[in-house]
């Protein structure tokens, strides 16, 4: 969080929330911070600004990330603004200062409104599905639940990063000259009696990877590119070596049903596999040294563009933070199949991405990286990258005819962080060309771009999608 000398910060509600979360009285917190209780009381009532010195004391005393302190509560202003953009509330004029007051002064009430709206939209969608299909489902889909659970933790799992670094070091690819794939394959064979076999596409049919527990074999399709094949092998190694730890994390999450728990385990195993292929410290150091050059990171760790992009959203270690990136993946119709952020990008929670964003036009230049500076309705500016990636498994699904089902990856960070990126060099970041985008074009009838494009939707993922993918969610290509 930037603290300019001439800018007064009134963070009373957030400071009060921090104090209550730690179970402190005003007198106790004032003593910890070296100020008087009356001064702290004035700050909490926004009668005094928070000084830079006090912010530093907060960070040192309570190990607080100042960026997190600068964010709103669970239901932020942007999320409430998106909800109120629903035509259901047409004619109800809610100014921004009222939303700010609600999120700052009563974050619990704001979160309650958001949950109520989410329940309403889910019920509405179930009713529509029942009319169309003659059946209704209950509760959020497994993919929605897992996505929200991961994002609530800012896509950062220090315990998995630690396990990944340890396992990568035990493989020691730098000493042998062999890559992680060969070393992981050998470790599966020697320690776990598990063989890896590459099979013809006509044998695998629609599968790109499949584990045969009875014959102790991991079967991989010949259509996989090297990075996807390596990821699938390391994924199996992560599961073989650390299934107990992964199961404990899943149990602690308290998933609502068995299908959701299974999907969460797949996701966490993928996170661990990525931490093995791209160990945190080495990956973060090279990213900083190269200006977050994705091609250099791909070459060093023998991974794909999408795998690097997703790993960039997980660099939140307090002692070695990376640029707080967000990531979103869409198809040509605008359907969202992946969205994560280590920062605070205001994803549309009930719709898709705005078509004015070049993420959608990236399909016209396959494989080419395009940049754009966008501005969200809250006035925040973001430096973004977009590029297409190929969906794995399309080749065999089309009988070898090679029709491609391209996806596009959008990656970005706040404009103030762009100076750290090689892709922003030479740009005038002080007075850039900016494109305003809307929050959720499916809902926002006020936004001009809503009249020019078909409304994108958030594509629900089935459990089968994960089990058939090459590198199952979140680091895989399909």
Provide a brief overview of the structure:
One of its GO terms (cellular component) is cytosol. The chain has 478 residues and is an alpha+beta fold.
Could you walk me through the main structural features you see in this protein, from its secondary elements to its overall organization?
By secondary structure, this protein is an alpha+beta fold. The chain folds into three domains: 12-69, Orthogonal Bundle (434 Repressor (Amino-terminal Domain)), CATH 1.10.260.40; 77-139, no CATH class; 158-468, no CATH class. Helix content is 46%, strand content 11%. It is built from 21 helices and nine strands. Strands 5-4-8-7-6-9 form a six-stranded mixed sheet. 39% of the residues are buried.
Count of all domains: 3
What share of the residues does DSSP label as strand, in percent?
5-15%
Cα(first) to Cα(last) distance is 35 Å
Largest sheet geometry: 6 strands, mixed
Tell me, briefly, the overall form.
globular
Organism: Brevundimonas subvibrioides
Protein name: XRE family transcriptional regulator
InterPro entries: Cro/C1-type_HTH, HTH_RamB, IrrE_HExxH, Lambda_DNA-bd_dom_sf, ScfR_C, TransReg_Diox_bact_type
GO molecular function, one term: DNA-binding transcription factor activity
Looking at this protein, list some descriptive labels.
3-stranded mixed β-sheet, 434 Repressor (Amino-terminal Domain), 478 residues, alpha+beta, DNA binding, 21 helices, disordered C terminus, disordered N terminus
């Amino acid at each position: 969080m930037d603290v300019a000398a001439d800018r007064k910060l009134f963070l009373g509600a957030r400071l009060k929330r921090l104090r209550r979360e730690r179970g402190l009285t005003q007198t106790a917190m004032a003593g910890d911070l070296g100020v008087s209780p009356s001064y702290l009381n004035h700050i909490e009532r926004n009668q005094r600004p928070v000084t830079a010195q006090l912010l530093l004391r907060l960070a040192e005393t309570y190990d607080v990330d100042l960026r997190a302190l600068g964010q709103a509560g669970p239901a932020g202003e942007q999320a409430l603004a998106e909800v109120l953009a629903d035509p259901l509330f047409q004619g109800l004029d809610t100014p921004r200062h009222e939303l700010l007051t609600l999120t700052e002064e009563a974050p619990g009430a704001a979160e309650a409104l958001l949950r109520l709206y989410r329940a309403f939209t889910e019920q509405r969608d179930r009713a529509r599905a029942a009319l169309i299909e003659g059946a209704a489902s209950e509760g959020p889909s497994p993919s929605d639940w897992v996505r929200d659970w991961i994002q609530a933790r800012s896509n950062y799992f220090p315990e998995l990063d630690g396990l990944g670094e340890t396992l990568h070091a035990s493989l020691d690819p730098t000493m042998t000259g062999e890559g992680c794939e060969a070393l992981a394959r050998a470790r599966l064979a020697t320690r776990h009696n598990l063989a890896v076999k590459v099979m013809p596409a006509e044998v695998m049919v629609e599968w790109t990877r499949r584990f045969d527990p009875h014959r102790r074999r991991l079967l991989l399709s010949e259509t996989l590119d090297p990075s996807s094949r390596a990821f699938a092998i390391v994924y199996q190694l992560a599961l073989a070596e650390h299934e107990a730890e992964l199961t404990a994390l899943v149990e602690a999450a308290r998933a609502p049903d068995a299908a959701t728990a299974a999907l969460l385990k797949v996701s966490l195993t993928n996170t661990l596999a990525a931490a093995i292929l791209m160990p945190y410290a080495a990956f973060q150091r090279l990213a900083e040294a190269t200006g977050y050059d994705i091609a250099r990171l791909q070459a060093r760790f023998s991974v794909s563009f999408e795998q690097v992009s997703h790993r960039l959203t997980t660099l939140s270690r307090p002692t070695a933070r990376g640029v707080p990136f967000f990531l979103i993946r869409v198809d040509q119709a605008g359907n969202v199949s992946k969205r994560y952020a280590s920062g605070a990008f205001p994803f549309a929670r009930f719709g898709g991405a705005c078509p004015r964003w070049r993420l959608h036009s990236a399909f016209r230049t396959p494989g080419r990286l395009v940049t754009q500076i966008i501005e969200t309705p809250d006035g925040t500016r973001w430096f973004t990258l977009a590029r297409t990636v190929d969906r794995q498994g399309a080749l065999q699904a089309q009988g070898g005819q090679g029709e491609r089902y391209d996806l596009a990856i959008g990656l970005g960070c706040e404009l103030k962080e762009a100076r750290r990126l090689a892709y922003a060099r030479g740009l005038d970041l002080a007075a850039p060309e900016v494109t305003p985008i809307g929050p959720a074009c499916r809902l926002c009838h006020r936004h001009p771009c809503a009249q020019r494009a078909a409304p994108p939707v958030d594509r629900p993922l089935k459990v089968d999608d994960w089990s058939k993918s090459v590198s199952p969610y979140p680091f895989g290509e399909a």
